[in-house]
Design brief:
It is a single chain. The protein is 50% helix and 14% strand. A five-stranded parallel beta sheet has the order 2-1-3-4-5, sandwiched between helices. The chain has a four-stranded parallel beta sheet with strand order 7-6-8-9, with helices on both faces. Helix 2 packs parallel to helix 6.
Length: 348
């Protein structure tokens, strides 16, 4: 099996991965429930997007807000009343490890999700609950292993309601339609070949889906991608579309739509694309599928993942390696200004 086939196999295996992750998460020891005023999820890249999925999924159903932390430093608002979740698939992401150490000093409730590495060792030393998931994958191909334990943990700790039925629906929907979606992804990838993809979200639920499309097109297909959200787009970006002119000749708009998209936002999308028709070469409109918000979100996540790997095939590039990220990590490792693996004292 070559790398193209392996990445495709990993994407198509997302429903099984999510089902397995749910079993792992429900068996984990998390400690007693406690009231939290917020949840902060620290993570980078393919690990960090799990926090954004939780934020978008829960924004309209949970009174406890979820925030993402994609930096070395945690916000001042992280306090003893915060649930802080560190997610690093490799367990060795230096930004996440540094944020984990800072959160420890804030004495907030802690949780780690990882396949091992320094994060697992640091959590064990500090007495922090850690959910260990299977390793050996590119982090961007481990979304199920990272997001589902986060969601199940938030349910078990009382942050949100149970999504067990919704997860079952999402897993079933992806398993049933993955071959159909792969065939659907092929003409979309052809439309994006040698073009600049511009992915627009039209609801809070889909904001993270647009971000996922960008990241997967970046890493798998090795292309640039721009994203924005509606209706905010109508108050700034609409004016700039079509300039410089060489962008207008290469820009393909991908509009992500959902039943949660406000009717006025759908109207705005239609009129905005009409007003800016000289600013792009094509529009691809995509509607989510499924009943629950979780299923609808992941229907477009899987489709975007499939588009990215098909575009990689069309471009003749290997979707597995991310050489520039690896080289940057090597250079950063030569000049460490901090010690993210420093010993962490046990919480008393």
């Amino acid at each position: 099996m070559n790398n193209q086939e392996r990445m495709l196999d990993l994407i198509l295996g997302l429903p099984e991965q999510m089902a397995e992750a749910a079993v792992i998460a429900r068996m984990a020891r998390l400690g007693r429930r406690r009231r939290f005023d917020k949840v902060v999820v620290a993570g980078m890249g393919g690990s960090g997007i799990s926090g954004d999925v939780a934020r978008c999924l829960l924004s309209d159903v949970s009174p406890v807000p979820v925030f993402s932390c994609r930096d070395y430093t945690v916000p001042v608002a992280v306090t003893e009343r915060t649930l802080f979740v560190a997610i690093s698939y490799s367990g060795n992401t230096e930004e996440t490890l540094t944020a984990f150490r800072q959160a420890m000093r804030r004495k907030c409730r802690m949780l780690a999700i990882t396949s091992g590495g320094k994060l697992e060792r640091a959590a064990n030393r500090a007495g922090v609950p850690v959910i260990v998931v299977p390793g050996g994958l590119p982090p961007r191909a481990a979304l199920g292993y990272l997001f589902v334990p986060l969601l199940v943990s938030l349910e078990r700790l009382g942050v949100c309601r149970s999504h067990k039925r919704d997860l079952t629906e999402a897993v079933g929907l992806m398993a049933e339609h993955r071959k159909k979606w792969y065939n659907k992804a092929k003409p979309i990838a052809r439309a994006l070949l040698d073009q600049l993809p511009v992915v627009y979200s039209t609801s809070r639920l889909l904001d993270v889906v647009a971000e996922r499309w960008r990241c997967q097109l970046n890493e798998n297909a090795k292309v640039m991608c721009h994203t924005n959200v509606f209706p905010e787009h109508n108050h700034n970006e609409i004016v700039g579309m079509g300039a410089p002119e060489f962008l207008a000749e290469r820009m393909v708009v991908v509009a992500l739509l959902d039943r949660a998209t406000h009717p006025r936002t759908r109207l705005r999308l239609r009129h905005a694309l009409d007003v800016t028709q000289d600013g792009y070469v094509r529009v691809v409109r995509l509607e989510s599928e499924g009943r629950s918000a979780l299923a609808r979100l992941f229907s477009l996540v899987m489709l975007g993942d499939l588009v990215s790997v098909e575009l990689a095939r069309l471009r003749g590039v290997d979707p597995m390696p991310v050489a520039r990220i690896a080289e940057l990590k090597r250079r950063m490792a030569r000049r460490r200004g901090v010690r993210p693996d420093a010993r962490i004292r046990r919480v008393r």
